[in-house]
Each structure stands twice: as C-alpha cells, then as structure tokens.
Amino acid sequence: MEFIDRLLTCADCGGEFIFTAGEQLFFFDKQFKNDPKRCKPCKSKRAGVGLRAGTGPAAAGLSRTETRTECSACGIETTVPFKPTQGRPVLCRQCFQAKRAPTTGALVTAAATADMVAGSGEHNSVGAELLTAAHSSQA
Ligand SMILES: [Zn+2]
Ligand SMILES: [Zn+2]
Questions:
Q1: Which listed ligand is nearest to 37 at the C-alpha?
Q2: Which of 33, 82, 126, 138 has its CA 20 to 30 A from that of 116?
Q3: DSSP at 24
Q4: Domains of the chain: which residue ranges?
C-alpha cells in the first residue's frame, strides 16, 4: 500500500487540511477505517471542550439552560435562561421592568443587577432573554 498526502475538508470549520502520508500510514497501522474528519486546530478545540457522543447541530440547541426559580422581589415562579447564583436576585418580567423603568438611578441598578445575574455585559440581550423567559413561563 502506498500513501500520498491527501487534502481533506474539515467537518467543523470547512477548511482544508492535509492528511499526510505519515498519518495515513499510522491510521492504516491502527486499522482505522475512516479518514480524519477535522483539522488539527478543530480536533484539539473539541478535545479541550470535552467530546460527547451526541455532539452535533442538535446538541448545540440544547446548550441553553432554563432554570426554574422564584422572583426575588415578588416571589412568583419564573424561569430564567441562565443558572442563578445563590444569593443573587433574579427578577420576573414585571419586577425587571418595574425596576428599570422609574428613575435613572433605578435603571442603572436594575441593569447592573441583571448583568451580575446573567454574567453578561450586554444589557439588551439580557433584557430580551428575561422577557422571553418570563413570557414563556406565563403562557
Ligand atoms: Zn477545522
Ligand atoms: Zn417579580
């Protein structure tokens, strides 16, 4: 059996990478049936993340965490798209809006609180996510 370098397409990033003759020999030696699917950077990236059996486009859709919790202000049950940290306030839609609406001072506080809770620096997306979460819990 003779091996020559081959150009393969990475299944992750779509880039081309070289499946070298040496690697092919190694694969042949180990009796691996399939060509490598990913370039080295993508392979090491996945290894770092922790490869799971069901990894794929479908699995990516499940990465969003919905957590059931109680509003820190009024106590009603709501769901949030993130994991609330113990001791930190989580607000339902009404309380979130009430807190951010009235004065400039309250607006800053509410936004800062939401940022702390969500662990994100984007005010708009946090607001939208809280709205979506609260809305779906009430439907
Ligand atoms: Zn790649
Ligand atoms: Zn509330």
A1: 1
A2: 138
A3: H
A4: 6-60, 67-138
Ligand nearest to the CA of residue 137, numbered in listed order: 2
Ion ligand 2 — residues with CB < 5 Å: 71, 73-74, 92, 95
CA distance 135 to 139: 6
Provide the token pair at 72.
């820190």
Q: Of the bound ligands, which one is closest to the alpha carbon of residue 45?
A: 1
Torsion-angle region of residue 31: left (phi > 0), alpha (psi -120 to 50) or beta? left
Q: What ligand has the least distance to the C-alpha of 90?
A: 2
Over residues 21-43, the pLDDT tens digits come to: 999 999 999 999 999 999 999 98
Give the pair of three-digit tokens for residue 76: 């009603």
Residue in this structure with the two tokens 């809305």, named with its chain if needed: 135
The alpha carbon of 37 and the centre of ligand 1 are apart by a number of angstroms equal to: 9
- Tokens 């009404």 label which residue? 94
Helix (H) or strand (E) segment spanning residue 72? none
